[in-house]
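Researcher: We're reviewing a set of sequences before deciding which ones to prioritize for further study. For each one, I'd like a predicted 3D structure that I can look through quickly. This is PepSY domain-containing protein. If possible, include the structure in token form so it fits the rest of the review sheet.
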Amino acid sequence: MDNNAKSSRFVGALSLAAAAALALSACATDNNATESPTPTNDTASVAASPTETTTDDQSPTTEDTQTATTDDNQATGDDKFEDVIKVAEGEVSGSKAIDYEFDEGDGPDAYEIDVVDGNNVKHEIDIDVDGSTVTKNEQDDTLDGDDLKEFEGATVSIVDAVKAARGEAGDSAVVDEVELEWEDNKSVWEVKFKDGTTETKVKVDAGSGDVISK
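Model: Here's the predicted structure for PepSY domain-containing protein, in token form for your review sheet.
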């Protein structure tokens, strides 16, 4: 083989090698172009930041959750008084209370009530300090004379008499004693209230329910 033929083959081989190198370079460029870009520090920071949530609702404070005390929730003397009268009158069928006395220092029998039955017979009823337990039910004498006139003239009940007198003593006063009396030819309820060391007496017409003196 002559030298010219050898040179031609050598040049051809170099050309093929150069073409192959160019082809490989092009492939590498395409692969790099399709790779996902690496996130920047700014993008990562945004993703990591927590989302703030706001609401109009506010947690209740201690003051909001406290139950306010109102005058409606404050027990008055009338509340216990009326309960005790119901118990006493319920102890003797068809009876009406004519006297009431409260003495918290008088042992377990704190309430003493006199009731009169349908035959005008008086009964002495004692009730425990709890206001619901009867500890004594003793029959007394039959009413006559002024006592009978007092009872027959009392068309206003003992409970209604105390309600009428309440305005003269105030809501915080406790009913201490109630008596039915005969004064100036008519039946009169005398109601005594206590508010601490203050004592108030009110007289109520037992026929009309009007306050007649204080």
